[in-house]
Amino acid sequence: MHISKTSIEQIRRRELIDAAYLTFLEHGLKGMTMARIGERAGMSHGIVNYYFTSKDALVSAVVRKATFLISQDTARRLRQAKSPRGRVSAIIASNFASDLFTRDTARAWVSYYAAIGQHPEFERLQNAVDRRLESNLRHALRQLTSDRRAAEIAEGVALYIDGLWLRRGRTIDGASNSTAIAKLEAFVDDQLASGRRKGTVAGLSG
């Protein structure tokens, strides 16, 4: 079977991205060197540089891969959701998969977050990730509360997720994935209940 040059290049790029992703999770941003990536992928330093001319380009590819994996998991969970509230739960759970929400993985992502301010491309990518998360949350929450409250709760959930990942990487006793999910679920329930109470009070006042 004939394999075109383009196909071979696509395969090698995918292999390098996979190797970079695993290297990043194991060693963090600083330890994600081209040499380590090439060694893991079984390719020379020259081949790595041929496909990715800079470390930043590889980091961007790693972020896109991670985002794609979460998006796939989110889509799968959303298909199984039976209600708008269930859709919110699906989005929350996809951000705390048990095989990813570990201290080592969280520390790797903390190292990436710390570098965002010095890398405009990283900042652009992360802003896109944040917007997608909040958009998905708002879409589900609008079926449970007002547009304004949906936006407020979505922003709160996104900030809470960031905080839990930061703490998971910073401390030995950071929350487990089940604890993190439970905290977010309680937060959403409290916020929705608070909105209903405010609506009731406003109705009585009127």
The helix/strand class is: mainly alpha
Whole-number tally of structural domains? 2
Helix content: over 70%
Order of helices and strands: HHHHHHHHH
> Number of helical segments?
9
CATH class of the largest domain: Mainly Alpha
CATH topology of the largest domain: Tetracycline Repressor, domain 2
The CATH architecture of the largest domain = Orthogonal Bundle
Arithmetic mean of pLDDT: 89
Give the percentage of residues in beta strands: under 5%
Tell me the name of the CATH homologous superfamily of the largest domain. Answer: Tetracycline Repressor, domain 2
Question: Unreliable stretches, pLDDT < 50, 5 or more residues?
Answer: 200-206
Distance between the termini: 76 Å
Shape: elongated
Overall number of strands: 0
Radius of gyration of CA atoms, rounded to a whole number: 20 Å
Reported for the largest beta sheet, the result is: none
InterPro entries: BetI_C, Homeodomain-like_sf, HTH-type_TetR-like_transc_reg, HTH_TetR, Tet_transcr_reg_TetR-rel_C_sf
Keywords: DNA-binding, Repressor, Transcription, Transcription regulation
Protein name: Transcriptional regulator, TetR family
GO molecular function, one term: transcription cis-regulatory region binding
